[in-house]
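Board notes (copied after class):
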Amino acid sequence: MEYNTSLPHLIIPEYGRNVQKMVHSIIEIEDREKRNHQAKAIIEVMGNLNPHLRDVPDFKHKLWDHLFIMSEFALDVDSPYGKPSKESFEEKPERIPYSDNNIKLRHYGKILPQIIDRAIELEDGDHKDIMVFCIANHMKKSYLTWNKSAVEDEVILKHLAKMSGSKLEMKATFKLSDFADIKPQEKTQKKQQNNRGRSHQGKRK
């Protein structure tokens, strides 16, 4: 009797041991035409065993790659996608560097400083004044979303001056929205948790 612990390691377990045996068996076929025919038959079996892969882009390409991987790249057949190299699967991905963005006021996000920089470059005029007002209004909305208490417009304007290096200033004729309907994120989450707790208590009763 054969035990799995004494058998060779399954390279791709999802296809099972029988498929791996078939892959190894066709490596020894000398007739190339017959070998190609058998490889295509194994591809069909692999596709039937994993129908969920049919929704994956390049479904057939992935199956052929798996076929070569299970043969440990020893199989010599004519793949419609070319034979991949062992090195191409062993290459390590490039290291993704950590973000070095120095965000001065994090609750405003990392995109806002870029918008502020673009606004600084605008020529003075009505368009720039409206742009500055929209930025300040967005800052107030973000502040109220992520902070517990209300905020005075003067605080927002000070933050705008700080983030723009005192290069942007909202005209005194503009007035920021009050955003009375905005509830701080933390309070909203707690309220949702409390409501869930009450509903569970009601079900127990």
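Comment from the instructor: The chain has eight helices and no strands. Residues 126-146 form the longest helix (21 residues).
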